[in-house]
């Protein structure tokens, strides 16, 4: 764990410090005292479970929440029923919200059986006023509710809850603050996400993210580099630089800087082997970035480039600021610079007003680009976004189009994935295979999974693997001697 302040040196009898990082460590120390008391009373260790919904950004936030809970003295468990259950929620589509309500319904009965049990909710869904109202009214057994802008205050809020018996709700409308140097944990010891920016300024007409994550804020490059260096010292070989639109990184910094410049600097970190990034908006993708990527030894030759729709008319309506032709030209440019580049995408089916012709334009782009894989989504109406007020496409029509798209995408991606069959590639081993413990599972530079005979000691290391057989979306391989 990366930990900047020694908890035992904090004098908890004093008033809390003003400076935010110190303040949060102070509250971690306070919570630690309270939880130690509770454990003594219960006569057993208290456990916690953090469940993440949604994107990589949430996954990274959860790693930070886990680290704080561990510092506080709770023990992590894989079991959902724990003494502290925290759901880090997503609201990008309605089904993500429904899942959370489902989980809460299940916890209600469990909480009655365990006097030490507490339930916390955080993340994007909590930034919606209607959601918080519903929780207050129908899920009054929830203990703690906070949002995306004050996630750094988790320890302080938890302490408030430990001191009182009523639900604590703290939701901010926005923030300019980026609090550095809080504790941080990793799900995998050898790879992790690194936030480079927060929020989004694009306001695509279907998307709730700018409303729940706020305006774009970039982290200072020095803070990012310090974090990456520290991570590498701690055993990390692969980082994923995270932001809603990494291509506009640095525009709002006191000394502006481009994403390509940041990549150049991250590349210099000795010991770091692989760099990934997510997500890119096509409208901001620069030639400089393509150049840096093409000449880099560490940046994975994988580009996630959301399409959303292949219809220029719908792209305009979506406020995407690009056209089908511009998108295809960009793909061409990327492939010319990096012929073996893997391209993946996000596509929405059933955006309001989508006609059969619009949908065919999407299918056309899918066939032309030949994505390695594509995340396909049924359009979901998000209240407060401009598209929610427009006339919706009938459900049966959307379903039928969605299935057609999925069939096409799967067929293409099977073919694309198979193109490396018979070659030897470098694989970063990630885990023991879930089905057969004599196998390990790892990933290629383009993120495709490879399974091959191996042992636990290989986890976190790079192996040369012969890709013997392409099995649709993954490979079966054989390790070759160095
Ligand atoms: N409905 C369906 N998909 C959506 N996305 C964002 N908002 C919506 C919505 N309202 C998709 C976009 C984005 C991805 C993260 O989620 O494709 O790129
Ligand atoms: Fe949403 Fe568009 Fe911002 Fe992506 S770029 S988070 S789709 S508003």
Describe this structure in words.
The chain has 482 residues and is α/β, with parallel strands linked by helices. It is built from 13 helices and 19 strands. It has helices spanning 20-42, 56-72, 94-113, 129-138, 154-163, 209-213, 221-233, 259-267, 287-295, 312-317, 324-337, 356-369, 395-417, and strands at residues 47-52, 75-76, 84-89, 118-123, 144-146, 168-170, 191-195, 197-198, 217-218, 238-242, 274-278, 302-304, 342-349, 373-378, 424-432, 439-443, 449-453, 462-470, 474-479. The chain has a six-stranded parallel beta sheet with strand order 2-1-3-4-5-6, with helices on both faces. It has a five-stranded mixed barrel with strand order 15-16-17-19-18. α8 runs parallel beside α9 (287-295). The protein starts with 19 loop residues before the first helix and ends with a strand. The structure holds 5'-deoxyadenosine and iron/sulfur cluster (SF4). Iron/sulfur cluster is lined by residues 200, 202-204, 207, 209-210, 244-245, 281.
Mean pLDDT: 95
Q: What ligands does this structure carry? A: 5'-deoxyadenosine, iron/sulfur cluster
Helical segment tally?
13
Beta percentage is 15-25%
Spans where pLDDT lies below 50 across 5 or more residues: none
Count of β-strands: 19
Helix content: 25-40%
Q: Output the strand order for the largest sheet.
A: 2-1-3-4-5-6
């Amino acid at each position: 764990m990366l930990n900047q302040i020694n908890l035992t040196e904090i004098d908890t009898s004093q008033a809390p410090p003003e400076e935010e990082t110190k303040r949060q460590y102070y509250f971690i120390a306070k919570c630690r005292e309270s939880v130690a008391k509770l454990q003594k009373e219960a006569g057993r260790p208290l456990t916690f479970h953090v469940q993440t919904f949604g994107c990589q950004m949430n996954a990274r936030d959860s790693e930070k929440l886990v680290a704080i809970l561990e510092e506080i003295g709770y023990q992590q468990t894989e079991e959902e029923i724990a003494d502290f259950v925290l759901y880090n929620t997503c609201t990008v589509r309605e089904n993500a919200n429904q899942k959370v309500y489902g989980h809460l319904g299940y916890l209600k009965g469990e909480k009655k059986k365990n006097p030490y049990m507490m339930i916390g909710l955080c993340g994007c869904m909590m930034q919606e006023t209607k959601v918080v109202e519903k929780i207050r009214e129908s899920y009054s057994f929830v203990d703690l509710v906070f949002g995306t802008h004050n996630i750094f205050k988790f320890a302080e809020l938890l302490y408030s809850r430990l001191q009182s018996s009523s639900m604590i709700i703290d939701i901010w409308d926005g923030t300019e603050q980026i609090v550095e140097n809080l504790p941080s944990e990793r799900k995998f010891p050898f790879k992790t996400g690194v936030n480079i920016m927060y929020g989004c300024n694009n306001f695509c007409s279907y998307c709730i993210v700018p409303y729940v994550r706020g305006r774009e804020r970039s982290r200072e490059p020095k803070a990012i580099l310090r974090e990456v260096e520290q991570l590498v010292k701690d055993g990390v070989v692969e980082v994923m630089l995270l932001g809603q639109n990494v291509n506009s990184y640095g525009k709002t910094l006191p000394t502006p800087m481009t994403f390509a410049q940041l990549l150049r600097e991250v590349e210099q970190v000795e010991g770091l082997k692989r760099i990934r990034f997510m997500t890119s908006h096509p409208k901001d993708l620069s030639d400089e970035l393509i150049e840096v990527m093409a000449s880099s030894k560490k940046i994975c030759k994988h580009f996630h480039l959301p399409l959303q729709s292949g219809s220029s008319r719908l792209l305009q309506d979506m406020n995407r600021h690009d056209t089908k032709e511009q998108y295809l030209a960009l793909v061409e440019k990327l492939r010319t610079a990096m012929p073996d580049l893997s391209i993946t995408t996000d596509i929405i089916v059933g955006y309001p007003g989508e006609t059969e012709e619009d949908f065919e334009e999407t299918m056309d782009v899918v066939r032309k680009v030949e994505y390695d894989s594509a995340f396909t989504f049924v359009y979901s109406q998000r209240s407060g976004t401009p598209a929610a007020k427009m006339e919706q496409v009938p459900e049966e029509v959307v379903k039928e189009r969605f299935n057609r798209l999925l069939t096409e995408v799967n067929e293409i991606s099977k073919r694309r994935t198979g193109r490396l069959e018979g070659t030897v590639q470098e694989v970063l081993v990630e885990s023991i295979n879930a089905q057969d413990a004599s196998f390990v599972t790892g990933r290629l530079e383009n993120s495709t999974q490879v399974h091959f005979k191996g042992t636990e000691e290989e986890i976190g290391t790079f192996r040369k693997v012969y890709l013997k057989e392409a099995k649709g979306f993954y490979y079966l391989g054989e390790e070759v001697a160095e």
